[in-house]
Specification:
468 residues; alpha/beta; seven-stranded mixed beta sheet; 23 strands; 39% helix; 23% strand; binds nicotinamide-adenine-dinucleotide
């Protein structure tokens, strides 16, 4: 059985806290193992990153960029290995896994093309004031299990480009692709610049409290994000938090029902609903409600659910048992208090398989509507007028993203101005770009990722004011 190790100070080493099995969610069987770090190894990783920072920060942006491009090349060269591993540990269909690897390589290159520069603020004969860009130091990178590679590179590339060194900690149920990326980094970056720690969900707190860490870049649930923020307060660390969402789709009454339903269904079920910006509830005008529900039901019945290694599979399993149990409980509740039009019960086979589930007639306060399901369940909710849909879409502690669907883009864009979300897509979905800032409003996050604004969060700026 292959084994995945840590990356500490440039060396691939076994974890001192033993090994844990990594489960394939399509079979519920252990298919690989990862060795696990103890607290001393976490401290050693931070020490190594601190030591490496002294020289890494002095390299030019173009030198650091060149090494990131080599990492992008290395990812591309190992696309098949990484994609298969990603499917086995995460569950997603192999072609989606391939897209994640290739998309991540491209993302590294694109992000590496950005640059922040020093600025002259005052330049007069008797006074010059300038502002200098400086890295922060050691960045702790903590990632979740839904896009283990894509979400890692969104942080890793700007952190390193800006001159920081990093300690990476993946989610314990998807450590393997991160472990391989650690091995690739060992052959590219100077010792200690990139360190990878694998844990049993027990070292995140230590990393976020660590006095040697200057910043935490975190993607995960809102509940854990709050713990990260509290732990970071002790040393006033910088934090960027990309957290949960309960993204609403608002369908306007001028849509072509079949086409809009197809796009909404795809946006809700992508990665089996395990996407921070997946459509998590859809508001449909009362007049179109029946037809829209019927269309979604047909799409759900047609979707091929199975092992991601099977080329026919469109939707893979839920990634881990805890999440699966949560999704099953939400479906049970929805069956009791609403009407399940398709799905609603796990498939009778091994693996964490829940079919795409369409639910109507639920109350706005029911957990499937009010909470983040993070699984392939979609509640469909009727509305009388768009202002009412908007009010209900906004009545959530989350504010990550939203979509509006209309044949009239101007009408959609107009409604978008009232949506309390970091991103509103009109007539498309999940169109993330390296050069467009991504952020959550309200309890969906703090700070920005991607684009120059995201890069800015990996630096601090010093003002030098000199009288001549
Ligand atoms: P999670 O919060 O359970 O775990 C995320 C990471 O935090 C894991 O690596 C975990 O080991 C670590 N962790 C656990 N306890 C910690 C602590 N006390 N301190 C520091 N780190 C700790 O999230 P998950 O279940 O892995 O991921 C699903 C969640 O992530 C969903 O809520 C989803 O919406 C969110 N998410 C958000 C985005 C975004 O960009 N906004 C993207 C993807 C996923």
């Amino acid at each position: 059985m292959a084994s995945c190790h840590l990356l500490l100070n440039g060396e691939i080493v076994a974890g001192s806290a033993g090994a844990m099995g990594v489960i394939n969610p399509a079979s519920e069987k252990v298919f690989s193992e990862a060795t696990v770090a103890d607290a001393d190894q976490l401290d050693a990783a931070v020490d190594a990153a601190q030591r490496a920072f002294a020289s890494w920060r002095k390299r030019s942006w173009s030198e650091r960029r060149a090494l990131l491009v080599r990492l992008a090349d290395a990812l591309e060269q190992r696309t098949e290995l990484l994609a298969e591993l990603l499917t086995r540990e995460q569950g997603k269909p192999l072609r989606h896994a391939r897209n994640e690897i290739l998309g991540s390589a491209k993302r590294i290159r694109d992000l590496a093309s950005l640059q922040l520069t020093d600025r002259s603020l005052v330049d007069s004969p008797d006074l010059t004031i300038s502002e200098h860009v400086m890295p922060l130091g050691v960045v702790g990178i903590i990632t979740p299990w839904n896009f283990p590679v894509a979400l890692l590179v969104n942080k890793l590339a700007p952190a390193l480009l800006a001159g920081n060194t990093v300690v990476v900690k993946p989610a314990p149920t998807t450590p393997l692709t991160t472990g391989i990326i650690g091995e690739l980094c060992a052959g590219i970056f100077p010792r200690g610049v990139v360190n990878v720690i694998i844990d049993r969900n027990d070292l995140g707190q230590r990393l976020t409290e660590h006095p040697g860490v200057a910043k935490i870049s975190f993607t995960g649930s809102t509940a854990t994000g709050k713990k990260v923020m509290a732990a970071a307060a002790g040393t006033l660390k910088r934090v960027t938090l990309e957290l949960g969402g309960n993204d609403a789709a608002i369908v306007l009454d001028d849509v072509h029902v079949e086409e809009a339903a197809r796009k909404v269904f795809a946006g809700a079920m992508v990665n089996s609903g395990q996407v921070c910006v997946a459509i998590k509830r859809v508001y449909v005008p009362t007049l179109l409600y029946r037809a829209f529900c019927k269309e979604l039901t047909t799409l759900a019945a047609r979707a091929v659910v199975g092992d991601g290694m099977d080329p026919a599979t469109e939707l893979g399993p839920v990634q881990n048992r805890a999440q699966f149990e949560k999704v099953v409980a939400l479906a049970d509740h929805a069956r009791k208090y609403g009407r399940v039009l398709f799905g609603g019960s796990p498939l009778q086979r091994s693996g964490y398989f829940m079919p795409p589930t369409v639910v109507c007639d639920l109350d706005d306060s029911s957990p499937l509507v009010a909470d983040e399901q993070f699984g392939p369940l979609l509640p469909v909710l009727p509305y009388e007028d768009p202002a009412d849909a908007l009010r209900r879409a906004n009545s959530s502690p989350y504010g990550l993203a939203a979509t509006i669907w209309s044949r009239d883009p101007a009408r959609g864009a107009d409604l978008a101005t009232g949506v309390e979300a970091g991103t509103v897509w009109v007539n498309h979905h999940m169109a993330m770009r390296y050069d467009i800032p991504f952020r959550g409003l309200k309890q969906s996050g703090l700070g920005t990722e991607l684009a120059l604004e995201g890069l800015e969060e990996f630096v601090q700026r010093r003002v030098v004011s000199a009288v001549h």
